[in-house]
Amino acid sequence: MILAIETSCDDTCAALVTDGGEIRSNVIASQGLLHARYGGVVPEIASRRHLELVDAVIADALERAGSRLDEVETVAVTQGPGLIGALLVGLSSAKALAATRRLPLVPVDHLHGHVTASTLGPERGAPRSPIEPPYLCLVASGGHTFLARVDDPATYVVLGQTLDDAAGEAFDKGARLLGLGYPGGPEIDRLAGEGDPEAFAFPRSAPRELDFSFSGLKTALLYRLRDEPDADRADLAASYQRAIVEALTARMRAALEREGLDRLAIGGGVAANTELRAAVQDLGVAVWVPPTELCTDNAAMIAGAARFLKPLPYPEYLALDAAARIQ
Ligand code: KG4
Ligand code: ZN
Questions:
Q1: Which among 110, 194, 201, 277 has most CB atoms closer than 10 A?
Q2: Rounded to an integer, what distance in angstroms lies between the CA atom of residue 313 and that of residue 316?
Q3: What is the mean pLDDT of residues 10-28?
Q4: Which residues, 6 or more positions from 244, have their beta carbon under 8 angstroms from its beta carbon?
């Protein structure tokens, strides 16, 4: 049994997952509302809140799994990338928990977690077969947007990534321009359902083959609102969302063809997007879209990645440091 902790951004998460990838519990305490009034995550507030919540979240994960700490064999934790103060709370808790019981610890790359989310087995009572390599994975979140090739679940190769904003950031910034709330993705998703996606022509910028760029799109929305202040908000949201989804699907199609892959997984918060979820079904390959709680930040995916990595024995991990960036 693996106990995993994830505190890289604004969600305090703990999960219990078996070696075989069965999720016994996956607790996510979202700080979303706390940061909403600032229009984005405030790092200092995030780390303080993690500190207040982390013990209770771990206790809750154990209780929901019907497990005791004695049954935990390995502790896994996000080492980075993320907000350094936020990461440190999870890492310190994980080290303390593991060290007091002389358990091994696995430091996990947050992005590897996202790439691995679809390899997790069914939740109890909800059968769903996990994806197996080789596969292509799109991770599109508020902080990251990249395409990865997975041949071996212990690692991944980045084929392309965003050169500026992440896709989730494009949703969040677009929503702000449209006067919608934060996080913007779900707001645009909802409003887009009432609008015409062909009403406005937004640019689909095409940088290098498998890379993404979203900052031009945001600027195009800004100019459109300046030139046409009374433009229909639902039409704008639908057209803006269409441009993001088409940029993502075009690169996925190109990567699948170039790499000769016929399995696709998507992850990251943007994978919750209704239009994107529908669009990937038309790519002509087998698609794994995890349930939303595995797409957004969570600790089950951290345990998921840890399953394939070599744990560090006690006391080797005591000197580990969090890393805001991971090369
Ligand atoms: O993975 P995530 O929870 O956190 C990280 O950034 O790591 O992703 C959050 C991002 C936010 O930018 C949010 O606006 C976006 O995912 N998002 C969505 C939707 N739900 C969340 N974007 C588009 N459509 C959605 N339904
Ligand atoms: Zn994430």
A1: 110
A2: 6
A3: 95
A4: 167, 170, 171, 214, 217, 270
Q: Tell me what pLDDT residue 327 has.
A: 62
Query: If you average pLDDT over residues 260-267, what whole number do you get?
Result: 96
Q: Whose CA is nearest to atom 13 of ligand 1?
A: 185
Distance CA 211, CA 266 (A): 16
**Is residue 276 within 8 Å of 145, Cβ to Cβ?**
no
- 281 burial class (0-12, 13-18, 19+ CB within 10 angstroms)? exposed
The mean predicted confidence, pLDDT, of the chain is 94
pTM of the shown model = 0.92
Task: Tell the CATH topology of 135-289.
Answer: Nucleotidyltransferase; domain 5 (3.30.420)
Least distant ligand from the CA of 115: 2
pLDDT of residue 128: 59
Question: Which class is 2-120+297-319 in CATH?
Answer: alpha beta
Ligand 1 centroid to 271 CA: how many Å? 8
pLDDT band at 62 (very low <50, low <70, confident <90, very high): very high
Where in the chain are all domains bearing CATH 3.30.420.40? 2-120+297-319, 135-289
Our mutation pick for probing the ligand 1 site, out of 275, 296, 326, counting the most ligand atoms within 8 A of Cβ, is 296
